[in-house]
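Just curious: can you write whichever protein you like plus the matching structure tokens?

***
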Amino acid sequence: MKLESVLNQFFGYSDFRPGQKEVIESVLKGQDVIALLPTGMGKSLCYQLPGYVFNQPVLIISPLLSLMQDQVDQMKQFKEKRVVALNSFLNPDQKRATIHNLHNYRFIFISPEMLLQEQVQHKLNSMQLSLIVVDEAHCISQWGFDFRPDYLRIGEVIAKEDRPPILALSATATEKVLGDIESYLKMKNTFKFIHSVDRPNIHLGKMLFQAREDKIDWMIDHVTQTAGPGIIYTTSRSKTESLSGRLLQSGIACAAYHGGMDPLDRQFIQQQFIDGTLEWIVATNAFGMGVHKQNVRQVIHESLPSNMANYMQEIGRAGRDGEDSLAILLYAEGDEELAKFIGIDDYPVDAHVDSYIGYRARKEQPASMIHNGEISETAFRVLDYWMQQLPPEGVKQQLTSMKYAKMRAVEEVMGLIDTNTCMREKLVHYFGQTLENRPNDCCQCCGIDYKNIILLRDNISRQSFHLNWEERIKKLLLGNS
């Protein structure tokens, strides 16, 4: 069987992108595979093509509902009817029907939380899967320890003697994250394909300010003078609203986006950004994964990212078309302390461990801690996981260790702010790789001229985004009809 023929038959391409063929060949041999391929390198093909070769169901464990739905919609557009997303968007009747017919689908998208449900496991155990895919596998390490411990349980569910091969996909991962992926998924004799994390077309800027308010003034001035599309990342939900409001007042087609918004509102805003009705998004890190927009020209970090992996993931949303793009990291004194506080603010503390033990001793459900206002739902999920893994003192040590790790991660990002040497080299080195070449206008430390990378706003670009709300709705509806 010639893979290029299968590629052409089902996808219409004549050649593979770098890394795709090596990954697919290993999967077809039955090997467990970890593949690190940069955003836009076609990771989904690495499980879609084997799905057609095996002609048996492929299970894809995916982190976000919107990401799942986007992938399902894309596959349906390419005439693949045997694809489904098993998630909380389904009502009870739809969920029962989907589970009952699961064996009839070729591609099954599912969340880690849904995977752990008993009725889902029972059905999957009765099926012959050809491949298990963990998409955005870095979430096992980044999210599993923080707020979605069900990620750490995936391996327990799928670890059967006769299980199919596992394919773990991500754009970026450190050696530690690679180790977490392999360990928690219980992978064996793993083939690893590691593509360079460097994206030469993304040029790295940084700006230092005396006060945080100065950053806001600079962004208003910068965004109103330069062309997007662009994303501004900030850690505060309220700041997404206030900054997007100021940009709107300045004539920029812009919207806020954060996890506290209604899911339909978020989906609507995301679609507006993708189709070009909105030029800028001001968002928390809830925005980005699964957003397939090729021509993002700028990514600005108003706040210090919580770790280097998040920073790399977020700037990687720029320049997916291969054209020059700009990523600017803004810093004001004290930003690192704020980032550390936000990073550990919702972690369980020793008192929560003692309270959990107390509930158990009284034969009460520890989950009552949430309803009694003692702990947030997110913190309880983390606490509950570790209380089932370790003795109480071990849990306290684990939580302390996790907090220190979060603070160290912020210090590592500060290394980009403090360095006088190449930012790109430092970033690539963090992921255990060596920088081969520096592009022109490489970074702030090597020398960079923003005007060489991004265009100044002109009358044409302004006119294309300055539609009133009626025109914007009409454009969106007609575009989707």
